[in-house]
Amino acid sequence: MMFFKNLTIGAKLITLVVVLELIIVAVSWHGISNTITTAEKYDNLIKMDTQAAISANSMGMHLNSARNHYMMAMDKLDNAETQAYLAKMKKDLEECDKDLADLSAMAESQAGKQMIAGIQKNFETYRTGAISSINQKLEGTLTEYDAVEARQDRIAESLYGEVKKIADMGEQAAAQEVVKISDENRSSITKNIVIALVLIIISLAAGVYFSRDLSSRLKELGAAAERIAEGDLTTEVKTSTGDELGDVAANFEIMRQRVHESVSDIHNVADQVAAGAKNVSDASLGLSQGATEQAASVEELSASISEIASQTASNAENAERANALTHNCRSHAEQGNEDMKSMLNAMEEINNSSNNISKIIKVIDEIAFQTNILALNAAVEAARAGQHGKGFAVVAEEVRNLAARSAKAAKETTDMIEGSIDKVNVGRNIANKTAEVLGAIVGDVADVADIVEGIAKASNEQKLAIDQINQGVNQVSQVVQSNSATSEEAASASQQLSAQADRMREQVRHFKLSSSVVNFRHKDTPSAVPVYPDKPKEAEVQSSVRRNEVKPMVKPAAPGVKPKTIALTDEEGFGKY
Prior knowledge:
The structure is a single chain. By secondary structure, the protein is an all-alpha fold. The protein is 85% helix and 0% strand. The longest helix has 142 residues, at 244-385.
């Protein structure tokens, strides 16, 4: 029994389960073997007795059918009908042969085999007599119809009685076998029920024993836990077994000892926590005042830098506009220069066209001169012709007048074209000088555009730099405000911590410790918490901010938001700090 107690709970459960499984396997094997035996018996019953009755009944049915066909064949006068019934009779007799073969195969006892042999002998006698008498009828040699039919009827009745006897014997044997198998099944069920009841009793007994053992030891652990919950840390938790509950009891005793030591340490450090919390509270208040003053200075600096950033942004925008206007002027000047060059090219083309027109007019003048000469010659010839050439002389005069007018118009046109050429030359000279001036203006405008673009880039870079400075000052402002809020929160938390330390001392008073533990207050214990100055110097705080050494302990508070007072609960407050 002590060996069983020292086993682990898992080993005990496994032992019980293994024993129960073995019993279940034995009961199951017994039930399975009985089931297999019953199935085999039913199989034999179906194969032998029942099948024998079925085959015997089938043979009796085919024998009656053959007998009826025989009588019909004997009664018919038509040979064709007689032969048809003869064929049907032979078919029925063949079926009887099959049934008789099945009965012969199923016969196991000597008496059964002898009975089957007698039936087979009588069956052959009946078949031979029936076929022979029908053939004699067909041949016309049969004389004693009534005697032959009476003999065949006696043989058929005898066969039918023997077959019926075999069928009845098979059915009777099957019924007896069924009764025997049912009795065996009831006996097997009774045995299985008894074994199952025994198994249930054993399982209940083992479960009760095991549950009582676990319950008693759990109650002992519960009583020890209750004493510890009431503050009694002096009672030792004893271990009586080597299983998991014994390990739990041992660990429970270790826990009690460590809780005892922890409560003793809490007694020793409670005063130190209270003193340190007071010092932290005083230092946090001083730091909060300095951070508040520093936050005001940073706010003023941030406002000034924001104003400078606004002016710089305005200058950058104006420089951008001037740069855009300068680029537009440069584009317009370059376009004017290109237009002037186009005008010079057009004037050159006009000059060339005027020279060509002058040449054409000279040709017209020469044509007019030749026409005038031809007109004079025509007038001379008309004068020579006398009265017949008078009309021709008038025409020649008109042609000469037209030639004179053409020459005069050509001369006037030539004078006008020469004047236009002179004016075009003067305009070309003036346009060349204007193109040179526009080229100089384009160069100057390009230089001015480059200078203005440089100013615009510098203004934008200055704007970005001032924006970065403004962002840095804003970040410093947020850090300072966060420090101020954090300092106030730390001061509040320190005050709450001091209150919680006092409450903690009150809470641990109800614990009952051994006599070797020193009592609650240790006035001779030196404080482990350093004493901080009442208020940090403002110059040191600002210098720390400038070095970017101030890091918020909590999430920075938004500007203008008053920090919350942290209220610490019994469970959360002391654990957090």
